[in-house]
Amino acid sequence: MVRTSGKPACPDQTFSSEELSAEVLKKLKSFVQDENIHAAVITVPAKFTVNQKDATARAAKLAGFDQFELLQEPIAACMAYGLSNSEKSGTWIVFDFGGGTFDAALVKTEDGILKVLDTEGDNYLGGKNLDYAVVDEILIPYLRGKYSLDSVLDDEIRSWACLGDAMKRYAEVAKIQLSFKTEHHLLSELGEIPLKDAEDEDVELDLLITRDQLAVVIAPIYQRAIDLAKSLLARQHVAPTSLNTVMRVGGPTYSPILRA
């Protein structure tokens, strides 16, 4: 197991997905202090299954909402875009790359009336995949090269997974910073990573990552989403040049690696 400075590498407490979602909804509800909120519109990925929608409904009830409606995220994006867009007719594609899911939606709008022609997506593709690619292909190899970790972690899958989870936030910082600059220096504080190697040396990150290095590991993940969007257009016999708008939704779409 991972040796730590008194902190567990992975918490033992577990929560169901409904309970976690309910906590998020409760937190959002707490931001409105002037009145009691009993109803909500909750957006969900376009490819959510019936079971996943039912789980979201249970989370809404756990959060204390008496009434709620589930709205597909691409539709919500189109509605928000349409409020400020002067072009009320045309064909749009929504490229929604979120933290944990990807949706592509082909939308036809006429005089401001939205109609979803078709959707495509992956409920297990998102920003977390980018983060773990950085962890697995940049950060963990760096740590293994600098520190004696194999004997400490005993090559147990769970131990390495816990270390990977601890590294995820550093990967996310690097990913965000490299959206705005061409290189970023990852430097952890002494004792910030609660792990010592076989030589009893504190494990630290002191690593310069460039955008080119990042592109090598995350471009294939972005390509998976791009291919899904292309297959959606092909299935509906829509040429990319006939699109009026490509609507990019989600933090990861700010990346110049994706936009290129």
Model description:
There is one protein chain. This protein starts with 16 loop residues before the first helix and ends with a helix. Strand 4 (102-110) and strand 5 form a beta hairpin. Helix 1 packs across helix 2 (50-62), helix 4 (127-146) crosses helix 6 (157-177) and helix 4 runs antiparallel to helix 7. It is an alpha/beta fold. Among the domains are: 14-65, no CATH class; 127-218, Alpha-Beta Complex (Actin, Chain A, domain 4). The longest helix has 25 residues, at 211-235. 43% of the residues lie in helices and 21% in strands. It contains eight helices and eight strands. The protein has a four-stranded mixed β-sheet with strand order 5-4-3-8. Strands 1-2 form a two-stranded parallel ribbon. It is globular, with a radius of gyration of 22 Å. It has helices spanning 17-30, 50-62, 73-84, 127-146, 150-153, 157-177, 211-235, 256-259, and strands at residues 39-44, 67-72, 90-97, 102-110, 113-122, 183-187, 206-210, 245-249.
Please specify the SSE layout and strand pairing:
Blueprint: H1 17-30, E1 39-44, H2 50-62, E2 67-72, H3 73-84, E3 90-97, E4 102-110, E5 113-122, H4 127-146, H5 150-153, H6 157-177, E6 183-187, E7 206-210, H7 211-235, E8 245-249, H8 256-259
Parallel strand pairs: 1-2, 3-8
Antiparallel strand pairs: 3-4, 4-5, 6-7
Helix pairs in contact: 1-2, 4-6, 4-7
Summarize the structure.
The protein is an alpha/beta fold.
Labels describing this entry:
single chain, 260 residues, alpha/beta, Actin, Chain A, domain 4, 4-stranded mixed sheet, two-stranded parallel sheet, 8 helices, 8 strands, 43% helix, disordered N terminus
